[in-house]
Input
Amino acid sequence: MSQTKILDAASWHKGSYFYLLLLLLFTMFVLPLASTEISNSLPLGLFLSLIMLLGLYSLMHSRKVFWVGVLLVTPAFSTRWISYYMDTQLAGGIAEISGAIFWFFNFMIIIIHLLEERKISLNTIYGGIVAYLLIALCFSSLYHGIFIFNNNAFLFNGALETIGQSIDNQTFGNFTYYSLITLSTVGYGEITPFSNPARFASAFQGILGQLYLTIFLARLVGMHIAQFQQQ
Output
């Protein structure tokens, strides 16, 4: 990659990571505090759609990567809005699973970009936090999708009698909370994976979160040492 292309990519990411970070923080930590009606309705769909579009925007530094992103985001974006207007379980499940796939792809591209960085900047920090939150959002959608297709996939409040309870009783906030707790390996136990897909997805997220923190922090330390030695 030429120096010009590297500079162009860095400039392109500078704004997208910051605004994507703000949007992720609001959607994952503020919106779930609202009532169930808000966190399960059109405002949530709007913010998740904006995250998808801004995530797609962050891929525009590479034409090939961008078009792969378009291919992945199209079913996620369209089925999410179809599920709101048609209120079908199949569309909702596909929306969550396809959204998880797109956000995981977005996470991987950001990681590659961060590993190509040669200097620590504020943009590097923004990108690192965005990547970490995208892991949480990705698995939040994955868990929600698993639950939509199988109401017995999770136990809530650790009680067996919650098996098979209505999908409408579980909100975006529940699965986002569970995803964040699993990512940080805290595991309070009030939400428990019960089906095999839910269990293995939870285990994979816990491992991925620890690997990410280890690799990213090691990379930051290495870049900081390299910058210090050059001074």
User: Anything to note?
Assistant: DSSP finds eight helices and two strands in the chain. The helical segments are 3-30, 36-39, 42-57, 63-86, 89-116, 122-149, 172-183, 196-230. The longest helix spans residues 196-230.
